[in-house]
Write a structure and sequence with these properties.
The protein is an alpha+beta fold. Helix 6 packs antiparallel against helix 9, helix 6 packs parallel to helix 10 and helix 7 crosses helix 9. Strands 1, 2, 3, 4, 5 and 6 form a 6-stranded antiparallel β-sheet that branches. It has 2 domains: about 100 residues, Phosphorylase Kinase, domain 1 (2-Layer Sandwich), CATH 3.30.200.20; about 220 residues, Aminoglycoside phosphotransferase (APH), C-terminal lobe (Aminoglycoside 3'-phosphotransferase, Chain: A, domain 2).
């Protein structure tokens, strides 16, 4: 996207009753949309121009309804600002904009045990507040992760990198195919899983703190109807992974660490205990996420790199670790289903 010019910013803000523009700075929060912090004579605001891939009005309005639902329930979601026409979504010259009140807050501190516990408790709080909110626009977006997605990503990578031309790469690919098959069998045995509208991007960059308290959970662009355990698995992968990690070629640093894994589960499950099906499904989703996203990111790199074998072996190492530790993960989850 071509960056928004100052004149364009003024024209966009002119559709809101926010007073005179005094300053604006582009911020790097997020990896897709273009974001600005603007200061006007009436205060500070966060302006977002949506990426073209996230410009579906029905879905955006459902996401805005979610934010309003959360705010009414007392959850620290950002306040959306309406245009002079009363709309929270502004479509101007084919571009999609939204404005929120700016939340002053400090970033997540990876060295703070309190922030870590707050992240777990706040995710649990979000899942509690979102219960019963299920707009159809967010229910029809499909699965985020599945064994079929793992298989499709692997097939695409095999074609793009011509894995069959290299015996070593082909052998690793066959082991990954076996993981996809095993996951398909296990997914079929999960049973019904509680669903809700997940945040979809719950990680440190979307949490704002005042001292040791979460005062803002932002960025609801990836919300969708999914099994609740999907978001818990994503959060555990992010917050309980080793830092720094030992993997060099993947988006994931390495394996889960048991102490933070157990701690996160403890603070999450105090308010939202897991049921038996979720306990059984969680380790499978951890493996599925690792495999699906790792293969997708390698595919996005383009032509086969020189370190292709090392990178693909790292994907396999993650899959093997999750498979080999399924019983341990299940045992820890089962012991934390309803911790008071």
């Amino acid at each position: 996207m071509t960056p928004v010019s100052e004149d364009e910013l003024r024209r966009v803000l002119g559709r809101y009753d926010l007073g005179e523009l005094r300053s604006a700075r582009r911020v790097e929060r997020g990896f897709v949309n273009e974001n600005w912090v603007v200061e006007t004579s009436q205060g500070g605001y966060f302006l977002k121009r949506r990426h073209p891939t996230l410009c579906q009005p029905v879905i955006i309005r459902a996401q805005h309804a979610l934010v309003e639902h959360l705010r009414q329930s007392g959850f620290p979601a950002p306040a959306l600002v309406a245009t002079v026409d009363g709309e929270t979504l502004l479509i101007l010259d084919g571009e999609f904009y939204e404005v929120q009140e700016y939340i002053k807050g400090a970033p997540y501190d990876h060295a703070s045990p309190v922030h870590f516990r707050e992240a777990a408790s706040t995710l649990s709080l979000y899942h509690t507040h979102v219960q019963g909110f299920a707009p159809s626009a967010l229910r029809d977006l499909g699965d985020l992760y599945s064994p079929a997605i793992v298989s499709a990503n692997l097939a695409d990578l095999a074609a793009a990198w011509e894995l069959e031309r290299d015996p070593n790469l082909a052998q690793v690919a066959r082991h990954l195919e076996a993981h996809a098959g095993d996951l398909a069998t296990r997914f079929a045995d999960h049973g019904p899983l509680p669903h809700l509208v997940i945040h979809g991007d719950y990680y440190a960059g979307n949490l704002l703190f005042e001292d040791d308290r979460v005062v803002g959970v932002v960025d609801y662009d990836k919300t969708r109807w999914q099994p609740r355990v999907v978001e818990l698995a994503e959060a555990l992968i992010y917050f309980a992974s080793s830092r720094p990690g030992h993997l060099k070629h993947l988006v994931y640093p390495g394996f889960l660490e048991w102490e933070p894994f157990t701690c996160f589960l403890h603070h999450y499950a105090r308010a939202t205990p897991l049921d038996e099906n979720e306990v059984r499904a969680l380790p499978d989703y951890v493996r599925c996420i690792w495999l699906a996203i790792s293969l997708q990111r390698l595919l996005e790199q383009g032509p086969r790199p020189a370190e292709a074998l090392e990178a693909l072996r790292e994907v396999l190492v993650l899959g093997d670790w999750a498979r080999d530790n399924t019983k341990r993960i299940t045992k820890l989850c089962d012991s934390r289903k309803g911790v008071p």
